[in-house]
Give the backbone structure.
Amino acid sequence: MKRKRLIIKNIIFVFLIVIFSVSTVILGNYFIQMYQNKKKHQSLVNKVVQVEKNSGQEERVKIDFETLHSINSDIIGWIRWNHNKVNYPIVHTSNNNYYLTHSFDKKYNQSGTIFMDYRNTSLDNQNVVLFGHSMLDGSMFASIADVFEQGFFDTKDNDIIEIIDTNNTVYHYQIFSYYRIEKEEYYITPAFANNQEYMSFLNTLKQRSYKDFGIELSTNDIILTLSTCYGIGNTSQRMVVHAKKI
């Protein structure tokens, strides 16, 4: 009996060692890929983002989309927000899976890339939906969490998201709603059959918001939706931000 117990204990011990070793490898690989992607992205920013200032010290940003297109033909724009914590190229392809695990240069990487919902056809859709991971190092869409911090909107322009299209036309979007929610398809609906459905959608987004911004919406508006995971692992919750094109 004692020998049997000893064998069982040894089996359990070996099993735990294996689990620990595998978990260490997986976690280590995650951090390595995260570091590599962040380093590559910073190099990309240095190469393609040109910031100019006028006499009033206002910034004008120009993106070298020709270089970006030579690296990845899926490029459709660039997003800047939250004091450049979000400062990334936007890609678009035929599904919502590929760029969850591929960096901008299409190499496998768990950090992924900021991408537009595959059902969107352009930046002119009623609801332009962008996805990105919430990485532990603060990269990609991790800084969406800042919105939920007290006083975030007290800082000038924190409510403004900037999108630059491939013609280097700059568009501004003003945040009118943010919230946490269980994963669903409704808030990422890109287009609606009629104005009544769209207006109902817009009202729902406003009602969900943790803050009333007092921003009026109409069926003529184009909105931008940012979505990322909330929590660790295979979480089912999402952090969501909606902004109106102004």
Notes: Confidence is low (pLDDT under 50) at residues 13-27.
